[in-house]
């Protein structure tokens, strides 16, 4: 696991360190998803191909989902995918 530090500016901005941008293949204009899970901020690149999401949510049990429900499920899944729980129930990010 790699760890980087950044400082929040007076305008609420954070610069993503160069090594992290390279590790995540981030480019200017890329979008990021911010999630808060158990008091921790999870930042996930939104640089996925929409074809990768085909069938991701499966067949809705109560009929077609609204766009808001789909958006919420995608954000929750993106945060959960980045939030890996260890055997002791703590996140790797907290170590």
Automatic annotation (TrEMBL):
Top-level taxon in the UniProt lineage: Bacteria
Pfam short name (any one): MazE_antitoxin
Name this protein carries in UniProt: AbrB family transcriptional regulator
Coiled coil: none
GO MF assignments: DNA binding
InterPro entries: SpoVT-AbrB_dom, SpoVT-AbrB_sf
Organism of derivation: Neorhizobium alkalisoli
Alphabetically ordered keywords of this record: DNA-binding
Record domain SpoVT-AbrB: where: 3-48
NCBIfam families: lp_hng_hel_AbrB
SUPFAM superfamilies (alphabetical): AbrB/MazE/MraZ-like
């Amino acid at each position: 696991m790699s760890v980087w530090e950044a400082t929040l500016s007076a305008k609420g901005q954070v610069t993503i360190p160069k090594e992290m941008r390279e590790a995540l293949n981030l480019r200017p204009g890329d979008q990021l998803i911010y999630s808060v899970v158990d008091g921790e901020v999870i930042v996930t690149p939104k640089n996925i191909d929409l074809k990768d999401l085909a069938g991701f949510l499966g067949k809705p049990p109560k009929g077609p989902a609204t766009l808001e429900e789909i958006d919420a499920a995608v954000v929750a899944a993106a945060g959960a995918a980045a939030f890996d729980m260890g055997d002791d129930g703590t996140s790797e990010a907290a170590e």
